[in-house]
Amino acid sequence: MAYQAFYRVYRPQSFSEMSGQSHIKQTLQNALLYNKTTHAYLFSGPRGTGKTSAAKIFAKALNCEQAPVAEPCNECSSCKSITEGSNTDVIEFDAASNSRVEEMREIIEKVRFSPANSRFKIYIIDEVHMLSNSAFNALLKTLEEPPEHVVFILATTEPHKLPLTIISRCQRFDFKRLTQTDIVERMIEVLTDAGIPYNEQVLKVIAQAAAGGMRDALSLLDQVVSFSGDEMTLEDALLVTGSISQDMFYDIAEALVEKDIGQALTLLEQLVRDGKDPVRLVEDFITFFRDLLLIQTAPDLHDMLELAAHEERFEALAKQFEPATLYAWIDVLTKTQQEMRFSNHTKIYLETALLKMVQADAPAMISSDSASPELEAKVNQLEQLVIQLQQQLKNGATAAAPAAANAEPKRRQRSQSAFKIPVGRIQDVLKNATKPDIQAIKTNWATVMGQLQRSHAALLNEAEPVAASADAFVLKFKYDIHCQMASDNQTFAVAFSQLLQQYTGKAYTPIFVPDESWLKIREEFIRSNGLKAGADEKQAESEEPHPFSAEGSAAEEDPFIAEAERLFGKDFVEIHED
């Protein structure tokens, strides 16, 4: 006969052989003994926790020739035929591959026929959540009022996908994940029966990797046995399951305690090169630090340890940690685990988490040895001020006035030093300003604004170009804060200048100035150059007035008019003053 996997050979054949689920076994056995079974059951829970096995055992107990019994005898013809899968009155139906309404109607048509050789006709519908809505509707009425000789057992891993009308017509049993102890005990029974030597530490590694599923555990055990040959070793189990050894956990934790981040990252790189999944590593680290916390707070509960062993070195390691540090590390790893689900660079997230863990308990205050002389001087000044204020309070003086007097110059100084006006560069632009340059910028202003990023365009909502020379232009801002933000954002200045060059053909460098400062600089320039009264003879003799003289200012063209003339020609544009 061909080789069969452990999970098939050692499938439970009675309630006593089932691992865990004691609350379900006791309820079903009492119902069998006292003939209080119902017509429909819903078995829900994670994979590999015994749902289908429990359904078959329950079916055997219902149709056992010795009934009513709490356990099937597994010796009568009915029990044997159900075990072999040849009993025509126990129908197993896979809803995953038969989800259409036609298959469900075929079952419903045969429900009314009495069982051929048994007391009950039992339908075991596996993965019932895969049925279509039409199939559920067809099953609904029959599930509510089936014939007395019919029992439905529905099994699913996703009960939330079932209609509430189906759930309300069934007795629901929720299967829980098996504990590590239950899984290890069952694997010991299997290996003892098979005559295979075992190492309990190896079985713990397999149970940890199975995550509460007995079928997964037996499948991994099968792989480890096949891989190891004569004797199972811890290294073989770690390689097959993809887990990491306790020694590696210990080394990484010790490196983190000693703040040797280089060693910790080196060990992590070695694990990733060996094929370990960073997402799985984060989960294992969380479990390991949870074990250290358990060793600290409840050393007697060593049976609950999952990754760390009950050894002296781990107890000594746990004593090196403050509980707050372990809580903080677990919190960092938990947040990292959530963020890694949406990233393809999981290793980088894990490396960053290790860096955060090392720096999590770093002192936040600056020591006095590393404080700068300026900081020390300010501290001394504040101490003297406090002493003076305390003395004034004792003498009955008002402390608010000195404080306000000292605070006001500081506020004024901060506001004045918020943005440094480039007066010299602005005056250079005014000296060489030309109308064609400013008109070229204003004509293409709307187009450039439309091409900018939203964040960059938002800075220019209240801005206006007011003067331009051959290589630079002055950009006036209504609000000082916008001017400051634009000046600090070098990316914005470069992108804006390059985009403007595409439409004007010239590389203009923007110079930023607040509205109030611009008016003062412009007025001072006009007054110092005698442009207002036209006193400059050279300017008076020139054919075109300076853009910032009285005549030049009056003659400055509106950008909308310039754009209209560019599009339609000056002969077709008429200007009407309101």
Give a brief rundown of this model.
By secondary structure, the protein is α/β, with parallel strands linked by helices. Helices cover 57% and strands 8% of the residues. Residues 362-370, 397-405, 407-417, 533-543 and 549-556 have low confidence and may be disordered.
Brief descriptors of the model:
578 residues, alpha/beta, Rossmann fold, Helicase, Ruva Protein, domain 3, Zinc Finger, Delta Prime, domain 3, 5 domains, coiled coil, metal ion binding, DNA_pol_III_sug/sutau_N
Tell me which CATH architecture of the largest domain applies here.
Answer: 3-Layer(aba) Sandwich
Secondary structure: number of strands:
8
Bulk shape: elongated
Number of helices: 29
Q: Could you name the ranges where pLDDT drops below 50 across 5 or more consecutive residues? A: 362-370, 397-405, 407-417, 533-543, 549-556
CATH-level-4 superfamily name of the largest domain: P-loop containing nucleotide triphosphate hydrolases
Estimate nothing, just give the exact number of structural domains. 5
Measure the end-to-end span.
104 Å
How confident is the prediction overall: mean pLDDT?
80
Strand order of the largest sheet: 2-3-4-1-5
Instruction: From the 3D structure, determine the CATH topology of the largest domain.
Output: Rossmann fold
Q: Which percent band covers the strand fraction?
A: 5-15%
Radius of gyration: 41 Å
Helix/strand-derived class? alpha/beta
EC number: 2.7.7.7
Family: Belongs to the DnaX/STICHEL family.
Pfam families: DNA_pol3_delta2, DNA_pol3_gamma3, DNAX_ATPase_lid
Catalytic activity: DNA(n) + a 2'-deoxyribonucleoside 5'-triphosphate = DNA(n+1) + diphosphate
